[in-house]
């Protein structure tokens, strides 16, 4: 009796091989000092790669799938979202088209990366899909996507393709898990890096500790930068922030989420409890200096 599944496997294999072949020319190897990673052509003259494996010093070079190698410069990098943008002469290579589609839980995904300029591919499964989240370093990621796939360090920065061959994000190594930085995050952050070289962050000039109150959540001020915006507004150590722009505080994380690039220079009303008494101050958000 003929096995009814026999024709399926060659068809799947052929489809996967075609997906990788169509993406191959946009995948590159990134060499920086002693570090190796992967990347992809995002726009003419611009490479997107993972920030974490990119060296802090030394020359950067790009090796293309045709074996050619060219020097690159760092246009900008954001450690909070693990995205870096490099400038390089890409020759005749075409950029990849990113898709804003978020893959379905349990669907197949292909990681296309490079090793010494040679294209690599790995087949995995989307093991977790969630909503927008904040990284441990404070970056806003548009969707939580995890892959069940084996990832080598030098393959970080490679492209993730869904079963239709669409590029849905960049693969990076998280804490004991493989993560996908979705295309929406890449386009948003890389565009700012291309123009400004960095991602500006709002700055209050306080160290905060979450506290539970009888009527909700608060953020206790543990330290105050004397030259920061909070000190200028009259906020003191020991104050408890309970409101932000006439709304109850949702916790320290919600406060930090409000300190994105667009918050810089804006004035907010901050509700405080000081020794049990209510205090209202106006604070102009500053810009966090580069670490």
UniProtKB/TrEMBL annotation:
Transmembrane segments: none annotated. SMART domains: PDZ. GO terms for molecular function: serine-type endopeptidase activity. Residues 188-252 form the PDZ domain. GO terms for cellular component: periplasmic space. GO terms for biological process: protein quality control for misfolded or incompletely synthesized proteins. Keywords: Hydrolase, Protease, Serine protease. The keyword Protease applies. Belongs to the peptidase S1C family. This is Serine protease. It comes from Bradyrhizobium jicamae.
């Amino acid at each position: 009796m003929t096995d009814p599944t026999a024709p399926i496997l060659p068809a799947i294999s052929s489809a996967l091989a075609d997906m990788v072949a169509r993406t191959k020319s946009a995948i590159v190897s990134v060499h920086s000092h002693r570090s190796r990673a992967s990347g992809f052509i995002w726009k003419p003259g611009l490479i997107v790669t993972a920030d974490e494996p990119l060296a802090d010093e030394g020359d950067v070079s790009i090796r293309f799938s045709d074996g050619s190698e060219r020097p690159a410069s760092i246009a900008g990098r954001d450690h909070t979202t693990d995205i870096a943008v490099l400038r390089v002469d890409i020759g005749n290579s075409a950029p990849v088209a990113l898709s804003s589609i978020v893959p379905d839980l349990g669907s197949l995904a292909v990681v296309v990366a490079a090793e010494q300029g040679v294209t690599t591919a790995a087949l995995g499964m989307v093991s977790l899909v969630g909503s927008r989240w904040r990284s441990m370093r404070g970056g806003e990621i548009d969707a939580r996507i995890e892959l069940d796939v084996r990832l080598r360090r030098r393959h970080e920065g490679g492209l993730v393709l869904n079963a239709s061959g669409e590029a849905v994000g960049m693969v990076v190594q998280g804490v004991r898990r493989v993560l996908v930085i979705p295309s929406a995050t890449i386009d948003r952050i890389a565009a700012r890096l291309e123009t400004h070289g960095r991602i500006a962050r709002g700055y209050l000039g306080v160290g905060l500790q979450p506290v539970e109150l009888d009527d909700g959540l608060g953020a206790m001020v543990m330290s105050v930068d004397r030259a920061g915006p909070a000190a200028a507004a009259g906020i003191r150590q020991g104050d408890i922030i309970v409101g932000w722009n006439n709304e109850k505080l949702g916790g320290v994380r919600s406060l930090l989420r409000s300190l994105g690039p667009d918050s810089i220079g804006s004035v907010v009303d901050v509700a405080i409890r000081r020794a049990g008494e209510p205090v209202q101050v106006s604070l102009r958000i500053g810009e966090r200096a580069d670490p």
